[in-house]
Design goal:
Layout lengths: L2 H20 L21 H20 L5 E5 L5 H9 L4 E6 L2 H13 L6 E5 L11 E7 L8 H11 E14 L8 H13 L8 H10 L2 E8 L9 H15 L6 H17 L3 E10 L2
Parallel strand pairs: 1-2, 1-4, 2-3, 4-5
Antiparallel strand pairs: 5-7, 6-7
Helix pairs in contact: 1-9, 2-3, 6-9, 8-9
Amino acid sequence: MKKSNFDHVAQYYDSNTRRFLANSDTGEAVAIHRKLWGPGIETPAAAAAHINDLVAQAAVSALGHEPSSVTDLGCGVGGSLFHLAVSWPHSKLTGYTLSQAQVQIAQALATQRRLQDQCEIRLGDFTAVDSAQPSELVIAIESHTHLPSLAAFFKAARQHVLPGGIVILVDDMLAGDGSGLTPKDLTLLDAFKRGWRMGHVPTISQILDQADEYVFEVVEHKDLGALLRLYQPWDRILNWIAPPLDWLGLAGVPRFANMIGGNALTECHRRAVMRYMMVVMRCKT
């Protein structure tokens, strides 16, 4: 990642993370990613943690055993790492984040939960690490789109995963081939990218096609969009607030940028422009 992008994303999370957590209802999950309301999920905290259970199930199914090592590319404050560490007490887990604030919070949480010997949180750009120890499982939950390109993600994933290991990518992706977008769709997509500091937003087909180019075999891919709740009271309020904020040129201010990008993303999902996908891939060599 270029230094300008590095700083841009880091500033966004340094400015917003503590507020995200203060306003969060995710409880022990300490999640700043999407809530998934699967069968039997009744609380926001359980919804925030549900993606971790889905990732764990997919990983064990693909590997045939619990992974001995896990790397989280874009770990936030460590919520997914801590969840997986409890599920897999014999695994060694490492997370990367660009945000100094997130590192400080994650390290404090690891100590509080007595997971500091099992979970290591590193400050840095995961695409520029030359001496990383490859892992059996690599995960990237709502992080890879901060990179300038899909190729940058696949190159980094190859570096961090062992041959035969599994990479699980969870993120918002453009539906179909991305063609046929209306001017309104393109305006919303642009607001999403600017607000949430996205470097690229790939289509589902681009993920699947480029996986093979970078020597990954797609084990499975599934649409998790039906588990999102897109019509919450705050979403309705944000739909009124965010467009004027963007019109006033406040997308450069991290606090307002989050509102602008979040509203645009929700609208993209409502218009079926975006899908929330999980893609499971095996490194073939």
